[in-house]
Design goal:
single chain; mainly alpha; 2 domains; two-stranded antiparallel sheet; about 70% helix; globular; transmembrane helix
Length: about 425
């Protein structure tokens, strides 16, 4: 087969892969919107507000409280949906920037099509729409800006804006700055090619420190004994609750196929599961993790670690850019990266979603690695036939497996 014929055949293959990605995305949307609508869980992040004083995680609910009572559910669902839409737009922009570097280069196409099937991408947005999706989108924006801007002042402004946004998100969920600190450090250290050490230090301080300060404020100043007061103001409405029906595999399938109904009163559910969290502290979180069990935690950790290893391998294999080349760009800043990673230790200590924590660590590293790889000359190397074949199988499989839905292995979500 001639080179032109081979190129045409592979172009058709990548087009078919793209079509399959769209079909799979529609299937996932059907699952989360119709077959297994789990919004009752994710809406809990927007229940607390500041009506009875400052509380952690209260900013999202406070925005909703500013609106008339009749718009409560419209506003809550809008905020939940906005996090998903913003993150998917960020992924789309990232894919476009990968492809726009050198149109027609095969490895760019492979890397761009790999992005939506990674654990932190499409299925994470649809099956695990936590508020950190806003922060993840902000980190993508920061990374892309640093990659394409050469002057100091815009870079400093971008880092300061990012730090301010992450600090604000800390009042929606206090773990967000800790979850994304590693990504910010890697983006600032690796992506700009000519940043001076002095500017780098200022950018790091501007991007990371405000979020950490906000975390400390949320933890130290938030009122604890307001759960019952907030409970009283939560409106009543019967909404879908698939978790109540998911007592066994058969019951779950019965619910998904419409053979049984499962609804709960929004007020009662939030008063039972959401508002009591506001009255817990660090030691309560540690105790909850300890009671979860060693085996489930270990299994959750291993699965998350496999996500990290698999994602790193896939980026290296399909982009042609070795991970060692990426790590060398840290240029003696390994201590900063380790310190940023260490901020995840309190998160692991106080919450059992250990697989999810690894997904976020994977995101921090992978999203910067992807942007870095897209700017490297290695990505222009032709892909072999075996690499193209492996790519098709990897993407076709990963897009149908909801890897982003995994919070932890074993135990209950509540």
């Amino acid at each position: 087969m001639t080179n032109a014929g081979l190129a045409d055949k592979r172009a058709r293959t990548y087009l078919l892969v793209s079509v399959w990605l769209v079909i799979a995305a529609i299937i996932h949307l059907f699952v989360v919107l119709v077959a297994y609508p789990s919004a009752i869980y994710w809406l809990s992040y927007y229940v607390p507000n500041y009506e009875f004083g400052f509380v952690r995680r209260g900013l999202g609910g406070e925005i909703i409280r500013m609106l008339p009572d009749g718009y409560y559910f419209t506003a809550a669902y809008t905020m939940l949906g906005a996090s998903v839409v913003v993150w998917l737009i960020a992924l789309g922009v990232l894919m476009w920037r990968i492809l726009s570097g050198q149109p027609g280069r095969e490895r760019r196409v492979m890397l761009a099509l790999l992005v939506p099937v990674l654990p932190f991408s499409l299925t994470y947005a649809l099956y695990s729409p936590h508020p950190e999706l806003f922060g993840m989108a902000a980190l993508v924006a920061l990374g892309l800006f640093l990659t394409n801007t050469r002057t100091a002042r815009p870079r400093l402004i971008a880092c300061a804006l990012y730090g301010s946004a992450i600090a604000a998100l800390a009042f929606v969920h206090e773990a967000i700055p800790l979850q994304l600190a590693l990504g910010a450090v890697l983006a600032i250290v690796v992506l700009p090619k000519d940043m001076s050490p002095a500017l780098q230090r200022i950018c790091l301080m501007s991007a990371v420190v405000p979020g950490i300060v906000a975390v400390l404020l949320a933890a130290g100043l938030g009122r604890k004994q307001v759960g019952s007061l907030l409970c009283e103001q939560i409106p009543h409405r019967m909404i879908e609750n698939p978790y109540a029906a998911s007592t066994s595999v058969q019951n779950t399938l019965d619910y998904m196929f419409g053979r049984v109904e499962s609804k709960s009163d929004y007020h009662d559910w939030m008063c039972r599961y959401a508002t009591p969290i506001l009255e817990s502290n660090f030691s309560d979180g540690v105790q909850m993790v300890a009671q979860f069990g060693v085996l489930p935690l270990l299994a959750s950790f291993i699965v998350g670690l496999l996500y990290f290893v698999g994602t790193t391998w896939a980026i290296q294999f399909f982009s042609g850019v070795p991970v060692t080349t990426f790590l060398r760009e840290l240029r003696g800043n390994y201590v900063l990266a380790v310190l940023a990673l260490a901020l995840m230790v309190p998160v692991f200590m106080t919450a059992v979603d250990w697989t999810r924590w690894w997904i976020l660590i994977t995101f921090d590293v992978a999203v910067v690695y992807i942007m870095y790889a897209a700017s490297r000359p290695e990505i222009a190397k032709p892909a072999s036939r075996s690499e193209a074949r492996i790519f098709v199988w990897v993407v076709a499989l990963l897009v149908i497996v909801p890897t982003g839905a995994a919070l932890h292995i074993g135990g209950s979500n509540f």
